[in-house]
Structure formats: C-alpha cells, structure tokens
User: Fold this.
Amino acid sequence: MEKYSLQNERLLVEVNRQGAELARIQSKETGLEYLWEADPTYWGRHSSILYPIVGRVFGDQYQFQGKTFQMKQHGVARNLPFDLVEADPLKLELILKSDESTLAQYPFEFVFRARYQLTKNELAISYLVENPTENTAFFSVGAHPAFRCPLLPGEQRSDYRLVFDQTEHAERQLLEGGFRTGMREGVLEEANELAIVDHLFDEDALIFAGLRSQQVSLENKAGQRFWTFDFSGFPYLGIWSKNAEAPFVCIEPWFGVADKLGGYSDLKEKEGILALEGGKSFQCTHKVKIL
Assistant:
C-alpha cells in the first residue's frame, strides 16, 4: 500500500494514500508504536476518516429531497484513494474530489483535504471540506484513530485509564445495532477518569455530547501518561474498542453522530449534520501529543 512519511527527531508518522488514513505513530527515542496496527483479528483499520457521515444511517440508506441514497457506515472517504498535494518531512496534504461514484451515494460535489502537520512531539490533523457549487451541502465529518492499549509488556488494557482535562458529569448515548435509542446512561459523575475496564464496550461505543473537556490522556495504573489527545471544538466524542479482548482504544472526535433508530425523513434533519453554503469551506483540527 502506498504510504507517505513525516518525521523529525522525535516521531515517525506514516499515512496511507488509501483513505488518507493515519497508519503509524512511532517514537524515534524509544521505538514505541502508539497507533493500532490494523490487525483484522480485531479491527482491520488504523484511523478512518469519517465523511460525509459519522456512524451509520438507518438501513444504510437516507433520503434527500425525496430521493433515496445508499451509503455504508462512516461514508465514502475512508475507502477511496486520495491524491497528493504537498509532502515534506513535516507536512502532508492529500485531496479527494467528488466523482460519479461518490455522487451516486452522496448527491453533493465536494473537495476534501486531509492535512498532517508534525511539530516536535505533536501531530495535528486537519480536515478541510470545500463546497464548489452554489447549493448548500449537508455533511458530517470525524476521525477514528485507534491507539494501542496496552502499550508496555506485562500490562493489560484494564491497567489503563482515560483522564479528561476537566471534571465531567457525562452521560453516554445508548446504541442498539449501531443506532441511537434516545436513552442515556451515566458514565462520569463529577469525575475526570474513565477506567478502561473489560466490560466498558459491551454496549458498543461510548458517545458523549458537549463535554467540558477539550483534551483526554492515556495513563497506566502506575500513573505513566503516554499521550494527550486534543479534540477542541468538536461537539461529539466517541470512545470505542471492538470487544473485551481488543488491545486498542479509539478516541473519535466528531461533527455528527449515528442515526437514531428509525432514521430521519431527510438528511438535513439528521442530528449533528452540518450545512455548508455554496462556495464556502469548513475546517476542523484534532491533535495528539506523544509524551
């Protein structure tokens, strides 16, 4: 698979051309690999880009202006090759443009840019959506990076916890078959630590809306902190792993969210959907700092 590399004295980063998918974050000082290796035994991806939907639409189909469109989970971007715009050791830009295949699933023209910027021990990842038409486009966008957990020999995933930068009173939105039921369950009660216990993902992903925090970090039981993930500005945060045995945890910042059970009568009514006027652009950025 065709890859692009970024590196400095601290980190080595690799990005696949397919899906513009972040595929590797390695410390050059310790050799430690932070990103999930995409072992299909658990989950065969590293860090999908979610566009133009997040999660699933009900029945894998949706309506827009009286027409029905078919679209699989997380949209089209993660399954398509991007073209190179710019590449140097510290910066990478890849681009995807709408074509006949995307228009058959998603009736809006678009230009989507994925930008990676390496600065010291921090990787910034930006998504830029451009609407080249005169009509308003409706979309969601998000990231799905999976981080190895545990990271050190002799540890288990349950030895780790996620630490938010603010005390949270947070409820998760409950799912059934990948769709939001409208029910909620308390997860954090004036706390900032979430233990990655084995049963945490028994009911699928944890979906949070409107958290106070802008960052979350991974720590082991010894208090060693490995990375801090900055999701400033994103209205939703998903946390997911495949099952109790999967040795990774995903931190997913989203503009948008999976459908409710039963779906919506029109795409523009979907919770979290963004409306982008003709000739306008939208940008969001998340960052991971290796500690």
Q: What stands out?
A: The first strand starts at residue 3 and ends at 7. Residues 3-290 form a domain with the Beta-galactosidase; Chain A, domain 5 fold (CATH 2.70.98.10). The chain has a mean pLDDT of 97.
